Amino acid sequence: MLSSSTTIRIADFGCSFGPNPFIAMQHVVQSLKDKLLQVTNSTNNIPEFQIFFNDHVINDFSTLFQSLPIGRSYYAFGVPRTFHGRLFPSRPIHFAHSSCAIHWLSKIPKELLDEKSPAWNRGSIHYIGTSNVEVVNAYVAQFEKDMEMLLNARAEEIVEGGMMVLVTPFASYTRLMNFFGSSLMDLVNEGKLDESLVDSFNFPMYFPSPEDMTKVVEKNGFFSIEIMELTYAKSKLVDEADAKTFMINLRAVLEGLIINHFGSEIAKEACARTILKSEEISTWMKANYEKSCQLFVALKRK
């Protein structure tokens, strides 16, 4: 695939606006160059590289492109739209990459929005930690639908023999989100927030297990699983100060969702209260920081 192409096209799905995508893409480009040298044993005719940075239309593409590395060895393009559907014509992509993106669902499962449904998620804001199996099933079903759309789209866009690498959070550290839920319930117990608002709020994220990924890939049939493993990033986020910093960063990811549902004042207070739980969070992190918190999947287009 590499030796027969004059241009290698790479897609980064869910790129956000930097700098992480630039670091990842530089690794990808360098790895492909190294592989090409192994195959051809020659530095002649090194192909050109095109990278397509994809995210939702509301992503800050201006900041992304203003931050592009000056010495990059690729041509950069922006592709605004959800990655759950088609983004490219047939077969232009050689390598696809997505980090910390596929766990975002395309929408909240409809069952969670119906107060009369057995999947009404009373007193909780996510499936993690709930005892209601109907809630979990609703999340799983939505994840499977989304992944079927994603895999079908990529199957049309990735060349035969092309690769797709997916890195996504695993359920270990995601329990930290429940600290935001406990802060919201604190406000309910103090009479500052209507409990029904909490019941009707759910984070639109599902964190797949290896079994989940194996099921959707095998059902889809267009890709083979080359590598699948649970990993953890060695971290120093194990004391109180670092726990506080970690939760501030997590707040940056989640606060917009909370504002949209509860309004800015409630969101501000709930997030501030969550950060004040840093001692409790630190204790939890010390007990869990070496547990697997990432799922790495390498797929090959059949």
UniProtKB/TrEMBL annotation:
Key words of the record: Magnesium, Metal-binding, Methyltransferase, Transferase
The processes (GO biological process) annotated in the record are:
methylation
- Identify a single GO molecular function assigned to this protein: metal ion binding
**UniProt xrefs under InterPro entries:** MeTrfase_7, MeTrfase_capping, SAM-dependent_MTases_sf
> Known Gene3D superfamilies for this protein?
Methyltransferase, alpha-helical capping domain, Vaccinia Virus protein VP39
Which family, according to the similarity comment?
Answer: Belongs to the methyltransferase superfamily. Type-7 methyltransferase family.
Which PANTHER family does the protein's record reference? S-ADENOSYL-L-METHIONINE:CARBOXYL METHYLTRANSFERASE FAMILY PROTEIN (PTHR31009)
Name of protein: S-adenosylmethionine-dependent methyltransferase At5g38100
Q: Which organism is it from?
A: Capsicum annuum (Capsicum pepper)
